[in-house]
Amino acid sequence: MMVKRKLREPLEDRKGTLFFDGFSVKELAEKYDTPLYVVSEKRIRDNYNRLHDALIRNYKYIRVYYAAKANSNLTVLKILKSEGAYLDTVSPGEVFMGLTSGYTPDRMLFTGTSVRNDELKFLADANVAVNVDSQSELDRLLKIAVPPVLSVRINPEIGAGHHTHCITAGPDSKFGLMEEDALKAYATAKKARVERFGIHMHIGSGILDVEPYVLAVEKLLSIAKRVHDEVGIEFEFIDIGGGFGVPYKPEDQEFDLAAFASKVVGPFKGKVTEYGLGKPFLCVEPGRYLVCDASILLTTVNTVKVTPSKKFVGVDAGFNTLVRPTMYGSYHPVIVANKLGAADKETCDVVGPICESGDALAKDRALPLVAEGDLLAVLNVGAYGFSMSSQYNARPRAAEVMIRQGKPMLVRKREQLDDLMSSQRMAE
Ligand code: LLP
Questions:
Q1: Structural contact between residues 174 and 121, judged by C-beta atoms closer than 8 angstroms
Q2: What CATH number did the domain enclosing 414 receive?
Q3: Model-level pTM?
Q4: pLDDT computed for residue 4 by the predictor
Q5: What's residue 5's pLDDT?
Q6: Ligand 1: which atom is nearest the Cα of residue 384?
Q7: CATH code at 128?
């Protein structure tokens, strides 16, 4: 019996073979080999516009800062820039890549944590707005230079996220400043003659529910009001961070943009007026939302092994290529790209070539009968996929292909064995 799988754009079932943004993934795998990340330019643009439109309909002054850490491929950065995105950066490396892909310094915000003095010097030289994460960072920065724009990362004491590693606010968090400390930081900055200000929070990552944003934005705005009234600061922007989730599991719902607009953006506008905060930009910093479902990972089945307790499908991508399942226990849909019409027949673990038992892309997953040579597609890997990959076990990193202006284009070549040693020096 042929089955029809529920696929979301840009995935398509054409006679039992998976197509991605109009191209046969089988042909892509034959041409570029596996493991291969395939990215859809169109999907990134659609995601950006859907989000931007939903926000701007409810408040006129919106900035979308793309969180480069999710996927810092230069072409991805460039595409988002061409849509009008700003850039959220966390390291000199990301600032450097932002500059290289055409973001001017005034379109970037640096939000670091545990930042070195030479990094602060780099930011000052680059003239990038700095969002400080501690009084220590602020004091050290002001000894180097007065930044063009200064923001303070607030811990609004409400955090959320798909995993404890990804909750970045709340009582136990290393991030941000608590209310009273934030007031002191702004006073320090004002005394040092900083002229332009923002205020920031980022409560976590992979949040599907809007409720935590409602509470945290309320708190952030109440702190902004105090800073405004007590320190005498006008805010150019109020940045409420990223974290908007995407559905990974079949039962997950889409992030409800309409609810976000009505429960967060609407009240934001109301409070900003009520508190006399002027017309600050409302900034958001999505990474995952913009790029996650715009990419799949193609991987070939090397080995099928049956033990008394399990069937293992051994593929050529492991946690060196996609670490999220191992690191957070994350679920990524896996489909057999050359057998879309075949019904699920058995339960398997999809495992990689890394010599650790935690190396599994999927556990106890219902799949059709899988054979060696089959091509699997792991979905929703555009965010924190390639960017978290490594050379562990001395495996060169994967290639990235983008479907761009109607054709596939290699946007990152596959690493070769030489790349494993390029920065090593042989001892005498
Ligand atoms: N802004 C700041 C200051 C951040 O630290 C982050 C993510 C973002 C924005 C973007 O968050 P997003 O919209 O992508 O959720 N590696 C984890 C996610 C870690 C996120 C860290 N910070 C994962 O694979 O789920």
A1: no
A2: 2.40.37.10
A3: 0.98
A4: 85
A5: 86
A6: 24
A7: 3.20.20.10
